[in-house]
Amino acid sequence: MMTTLEQHADALASGTTTSRSLVEACLARIAEPGGEGARTFTKVHAEQARTMADAMDLLRRAGRAPSRYAGIPISLKDLFDIAGEPTPAGSRVLADAPPAKANAPVVHRMLAAGFVPIGRTNMTEFAFSGLGINPHYGTPRSPWDRAAGRIPGGSSSGTAVSVSDGMAAAGLGTDTGGSCRIPAAFCGIVGYKPTARRVPIAGVLPLAPSLDSVGPLAPSVACCAVIDAILAGETPTLPAPTSLNGLRLALPTNFVLDGMDTTVSASFDRALESLSKNGARITRIHLAEFDEVPMVNAKGGFAASEAYAWHRALLAEKGAGYDPRIRVRIERGERMTAVDYVELLAARRRLIASFDVRTREFDALIMPTVPIVAPRIADLDDEREYNQTNMLILRNTAFGNFFDRCSISIPCHRAGEAPVGLMLVGETMGDAKLFSIAAATEAVL
How far is CA 172 from CA 40, 122, 253, 287, in A? Predict the structure, then answer.
């Protein structure tokens, strides 16, 4: 069992552990022979982490710890600015970029609360895939069926594995189309995508600013709620589980259940049965807005257009150094016109307004996070298989970003089975309510 932030905080407060002990345990896991540390981290901040841990221990003994969570080690995805370091974003072409002049606001807020960064975690290059494969730094393997070498999910691949393997107590990721929730589902942890506007994305290397969000990956719903509050500049409070009795959950019947493998289907059906037995009212509905999204995004959507705008000059200078599978996805944006982009903005506004009306009678949407278990890394060497699998894996989660909703993935598999995530989607700016629903769901599952 992974240790939660509350358990770590209690142990620190009681003196049964120290920040230095927690950091040393994480560093030992990273350095473990045969482990995933070398593929999980692009840079380990060992000495800085030790120094900060010692400082947090001194402050705690003096009664001056900056927060209840001060001294807990975390990991940071490789696209957050850390003062004095380049921000490579899982690439080689930015490995020698000028160092960041300041910490990203989300990094600053975690540091101010006393969390100790262990290092920068590996990711899909420039965050442009849900698979987690990286040809430059290697691909960390999902904790399930490790001998077979299965994908961790992306793009926050290293963050998820750092948490599942005890190399960090929790970590920060980003989510543009599912990049916190997909790796959480494949690695058996919780991943949260906030309502994007709540958390600043300044100092975070962008993929598509219209869709980008910053969120936590952690062992529990409560862990994610604590970190989310800190990232949003709010006071952390543990979510009080809502009553499941009478809770109104909408299960879309179009798209999200298509292509489910037998393992995901069995886990998801058991979860629905458990929720129903505890009083939740699950209604199957057809969401016409889902039918329109693929057509609206047919020319590349926000990801291709906005990514190409950022990468255009870098591609001209260093395009040969990109992962070819990432480069081709970015270059789709070159073919989009200004008219295409303006029409895309208008279509999104129209669909969000319609979607809000269609779902307002429900407390949340419910669906599988990903319809399949983590495939083997070796099976995705084929370009066609890579692209088809990537689209399938991103399909369900991407709706949350397009419709500007908050969303969370919670493990729903049995111990010893392949990790499967159950996803809840709340209202725009309904993050607090969603955490209460997720806490109640987690308790049942």
Answer: 14, 12, 32, 32
Is 193 catalytic? The answer is no
Rounded CA-CA distance 396/394 in Å is 6
> 407-411 and 421-425: which strand pairing?
antiparallel
Between CA 280 and CA 393 the distance in angstroms is: 27
- The answer to whether 105 and 80 have CB atoms below 8 angstroms apart is no
The answer to whether 77 is a known catalytic residue is yes
Residue among 129, 142, 155, 213 flagged as catalytic: 155
Measured between alpha carbons, how far is 390 from 372 in angstroms, rounded to an integer? 11
> What percent of the chain has pLDDT above 70?
100
| Greatest distance between any 2 Cα atoms in the chain | 62
CA 2/CA 166 separation, integer angstroms: 7
Average pLDDT over residues 28-37: 97
Contact between 171 and 179 (Cβ < 8 Å): no
Query: Using one digit for the tens of pLDDT, what is the confidence trace for 227-261?
Result: 999 999 999 999 999 999 999 999 999 999 999 99
Active-site position among 77, 157, 162, 164: 77
CA Rg, the chain, in Å? 21
- The confidence band for 316, taking pLDDT boundaries of 50, 70 and 90, is very high
Which residue of the set 91, 179, 210, 267 is catalytic? 179
Please choose, from the candidates 196, 238, 195, the residue with its C-alpha nearest in 3D space to the C-alpha of residue 218: 238
Give CA–CA dist 278/275, Å, rounded.
5
Identify the pLDDT of residue 298: 97
Determine the length of the chain. Answer: 445
Rounded CA-CA distance 30/260 in Å is 34
Strands 170-174 and 116-121: unpaired
Alpha carbon 132 to its chain's center: 11
Burial degree of 428 (CB within 10 A; 0-12, 13-18, 19+) = middle
